[in-house]
Amino acid sequence: MEETISLQELFATLKKRMGLIVILTLLAIIIAGVVSYKMLTPIYETSTQILVNQEKTDASQLLNQNIQTDLQLINTYSVIIKSPAILGPVSEQLDLGLTVEQLNSKITVTNAENSQVVNVSVQDPDPAIAVDIANTTASVFQEEIQQLMKVDNVSILSPAVLKENPAPVAPNPMMNMAIAAVIGLMLGVGIAFLLDYLDTTLKNDQDIEDVLDIPLLGVISPIKEETQKQVATSRRRAG
């Protein structure tokens, strides 16, 4: 006989195991909060902006050509910034014991579409070190690009500044706790249905019919305690 589950049975299972679901959800939130606030190292981010621009000229046509050339070079510059040719001298100047690969993993280079501004972002557990890495990278790039590309079209537009009370960009405790709540809820619901599936006890007359595959002829109703007392009293009086 094919077994089917109605929505009513599903909601009944959830209601029956609601305590388990709530406990698992709260437990997941608490664990995520403790890990985010107490165990994960805060990461700070700072950035510096580099402007790619040719020298000014009176001829508008030449100016437009220079802008297009700068835009085409930006992708190349983005790769050069994270190359050993730049990060090697940065590592030597900072003397932080960081390799080129370690510096590379901390730096992100981006630029908006059709923009001559390159944004160099740096993430580090120490906000002061992040500022030093960003500014040193921009400075070294400005110097080295003249030798590498034989151009002088790079200037530092906005250096990185150490804020008085910097806020970490990671971890995000609220986001982690929200994700943990969803995972805990899903885990609780899954365990609730698993426990219900593994529970093979016969709970009602429908379960008996499903297991024996024969029609149920009758049901003996439970006798309430008050009814039993009344029957016993009546028997004593009759005796």
UniProtKB/TrEMBL annotation:
It is a multi-pass membrane protein. The chain crosses the membrane at residues 20-40, 174-195. It is found in: Cell membrane. InterPro entries: Bact_polysacc_biosynth/exp, GNVR, LPS_length_determ_N. It holds the Pfam family GNVR. Residues 141-194 form the Tyrosine-protein kinase G-rich domain. Its main location: membrane. Residues 3-94 form the Polysaccharide chain length determinant N-terminal domain. Keywords: Cell membrane, Membrane, Transmembrane, Transmembrane helix. It comes from the Bacteria. Belongs to the CpsC/CapA family. This is Wzz/FepE/Etk N-terminal domain-containing protein. It comes from Planococcus shixiaomingii. The lineage of its organism: Bacteria, Bacillati, Bacillota, Bacilli, Bacillales.
